[in-house]
Structure formats: C-alpha cells, structure tokens
Description:
alpha/beta, Rossmann fold, TIM Barrel, 15 helices
Amino acid sequence: MNILLVNPPNSGKSIPEEAYGVTSIKQIFKGEPFSLEVIAGALSGHDVMILDMKCEQEDALWDTVTDFRPQVIGFTAVTCEANTVLRYAREIRGQIDCLMVVGGNHATCDPSYFNRSEIDYIVIGVGKKSFSELIGHLQKGDRKSAIPGIAKTSTGSSLSYLSRDYGPDDLMDHCPPRYDLVERYREHYVLEKLGMKIGFVITAHGCTHVCSFCTIPGTTRERYLVHSTDSVIRDITLLDTIPFIRMVDANTFGNPAASENLCRKIKELGIRKRFIADVRADTIVRHYDLLKEWKEAGLHAVVVGFEDIQDRRIEGYNKKYKARVIPRSIELLHELNMLIVGDFIVPPDYTEDDFAELESFIAANGIQVPVLSVLTPIPGTPLYEAMKDRIVIRDLDYYTFTNAVVPTTLPEKVFYETFSGLVNRLQGRAATTTTKDGA
C-alpha cells in the first residue's frame, strides 16, 4: 500500500501577538517528526513516505497527494495542530479517495475531537503496533475487525473502541525508526539557540509519574515501558553523522537499572556522542552516581521539569517532591558541569512579584537555558478536569503554551508584557552563557 505520513505545519496562534503586538514569545514546535519515523519502521512491505510540513510550503502537500496517490494518509498532531489536520483531511477528500487516520498527542488525549467525517480511524496511545495492525487489516480489505488502540469514527455517535493493554510487545523493538524517510529534512533539525545538530532515539514510552498537566502517562495507560538496550544502541548507531542525541523519554532514568546498563554499553562500545536527557529533580538527588556515570558516557545536557519554586504549586502539579529538592538538584548538576535546560510553568494567577521571584531564582541558581511556558490545561489531563469550568478560550489553535486560556490575575496585557520581558532577558542570558560554555 502507498502510505503517506504527514507532520502538520506550525499551526498555533498567539494572543499577545494578535492583540498587543508582543512578538517575542510565540513558540513553534520544532524537531523531527519522530513519532512518524517510529510508526514507519513497523510498515515493512509498504511504500511509505513522510512529509514534514514544518519544513515545506503548503503546495508540497497537494503535489505529493497528486503524485504519490496514497491509499492511507496518517496525520500526527499536538493539540494546537488538531484543527489544521481536520482542514487538510477535509480538503484532501475533495482530491482523492483514500483513508484518513490521525494519531499523536491530541488524538490520544481527546479522541472524540476527531470523531468527524473527515477522519476514518483514530490511533489512541502508542501507535506503532496498533497502526501496523490496522494497515494489515486494511490490506486484506478488512475494515470491520476491532483492533485494540484503534477507534473507527462514527459521526454523530459516541466512539467505541478496545483499549490496548500495553506491554513490551507493543514497542516492537525489532523494527528501527525509518530515519531515512526524513533525510532530506535533516539540516532543519537543529537547535539553533544551542548550535546542536540533533537526532532522536527513543528509550522508553510513558512515565513513572502522573503530573497533573502532562499528557504522556495517558499514552500507555500510566505504564512505563523501557526499550531494550540493544535496540537503543542500534538506533544510536543509525544516526552515525549526528553529534547530539536526544533520548526520547519523559523520565530517562525512570528505570535506573536499565539506564545504567545502557550507559555501560555505550562506554564499552566506545560510542562518541553527546546526549540530552529528561531528568526529574528528585531523580538527580537520588541517583547522582548514575548521572556521574552518564557524564562519563557523554551526557551533555539535561532537561529538568522544575515547573515551579513554591510548594503549593508543585503539590498542585502532583510532582511528588518539595521545592527544597530543586536547588539541591541544580547544585549537583553544576558539580557535573552539566548544561541545564530548566522548564518552568507560569500559571495565569502569577503576579509581578511572582515573576520577579522566578527571575531571581533562575539567576541565583545559574540555570543556563530556562524555558518558560504558560500553564495550559490540555483536554484529557487531570489539570483540564480541574480547570475546565474556568476556560474562556476553546479554540485549540491557541493551546501553544504561550497563551492563557483562563483569565489572568494581572490585566491581560500586563501579564503578557511581563512574561515577554522575562523571556527576552532569560534568552539573552542563555545565549551568552551557552556561548561561553561552548554548547
């Protein structure tokens, strides 16, 4: 079968830009469409193409549909891209007769949103095995059999589907990602601010924790599934020309034994890469020796979701640790001379004093690359359930983590201008720091 996998373009809208002329905080989603590469790896025997619309002009989609004549088109989408995917599917319907499938973050969190005539099937959760099974059934002309993790749309009716009982078999470790399908885009996959040419390697699905704002636990029904050491090593070596490897995992050291085994294998094989990992603050404190070993193996930077510096908010996010853990974790990372990418959430009730306190904390603790996002309740998360009655913006195009979709305590313009000013100052310091550090 001819299968076209589409990564939608940057689709988000910006209230501060549209309403107040504040252009400095609009964020776009970058990086290779790794979920599509992973899915394509399980589709041997088919003619598969990946179209990354974040690197293309819109005409490329229509030209590809005309020339490639796909029998199945699969879209991935985060929340702010959902409406664009529906538009694409609707317009493609007018050109060719093919099946439309959507998966990814928003399809998993809120599958009913895609229960529309433009879409035929919805992939819910980790889609590698589910989608490959769907293609196998479609190739045989079977559109009726129930497949766990796949919902067949039924416009006007409620979705009915079998949940997938995730286990190691769903990882399909024997099928590597199809990195070759995005080779023509590879030069675009660079973290410009850090000067890193970067590739992705998946080490686990799911997470060991359930933070209230996070969509990741739902992808595996709150299970943490670790890929085999051999499959991770294989994927690293497939990216032989890429110097920086981002290990795709919500909590890279969530299984310390598996992480230690991978680290030792990398050192034994003499693999020379610089790695980027996502690590919790409490994990850094609890498993400092493991991070020290990873430093020797090439761990260059860690992405840490600090989220906040006040206990009441940290508790509200269900982080399961106290604020005092954060400065200690930062101190340990500095001991290792590690580049720290620190994620912080700015909730809509932030005051000017809160902004000032956060800025002082970041400066005092020497966080080289702070990243700020506006608290956004994504449908399907515990946070959404807690905040849904306060939401005043329902258009998903604005769910970009730079827009407040519930009322702010500060006057709206003051909130965005204060947020923007802080982001600008932090980015300026980050550029100077990382240049000095040679990152």
